[in-house]
Amino acid sequence: xxxxxxxxxxxxxxxxxxxxxxxxxxxxxxxxxxxxxxxxxxxxxxxxxxxxxxxxxxxxxxxxxxxxxxxxxxxxxxxxxxxxxxxxxxxxxxxxxxxxxxxxxxxxxxxxxxxxxxxxxxxxxxxxxxxxxxxxxxxxxxxxxxxxxxxxxxxxxxxxxxxxxxxxxxxxxxxxxxxxxxxxxxxxxxxxxxxxxxxxxxxxxxxxxxxxxxxxxxxxxxxxxxxxxxxxxxxxxxxxxxxxxxxxxxxxxxxxxxxxxxxxxxxxxxxxxxxxx
Length: 277
Hints:
277 residues, Alpha/beta knot, Trp Operon Repressor, Chain A, two-stranded antiparallel sheet, 8 helices
């Protein structure tokens, strides 16, 4: 099969291939760099927002790598069909097990068989909810393979056969997995050392300790009659830290009771106690 003409996407060139397409310009990639391999019907969707800002800079620096595998390349027949009607009837189409299997086999080349070292993930609304702890786990791996679904989903047999982990971004349905893949990769890549440039930023963010982030302020000191809380301008670091912790706890209890109960249980408190803050 002849590769189609490469499509321009910002700073990188993407083309459909049976092999993973490296989305970095030139040979820049640090030895052992964390790598995301993405099986998708739309390789041109990448890097998308991942090529911007800090994640894009880190990609250019070789701190992580992004590869796409065009699922269409493994399709059946002259038209490279990748899907078929659901067994038992029903609306929509389902991605074929044999087609997806060939793409997963290609994606596995050069990766460790240990799923902890290299997770294989299908982005699905029925999967385990994605959270910061999962992002930390994935960032500690050597890389991962993401399967972006389309239509009504993927033949269950291929998910079972390859022991694919299912992860959900929330209780909603997207047209395909590409947007979810970018969100998952963004949340994971920013935890890789040197990507943010300031590790303290990651440590103070929402969910880093099971709490929502405290309110943030900057200049001007007074805007539309609203002043920055005086304590933040006091220069007393201990008092500022205590205020921020108090606000994080208040916001978490008010807006995310589920996180608040988990936080209380983790720190030896009664998860159901209605503690006054």
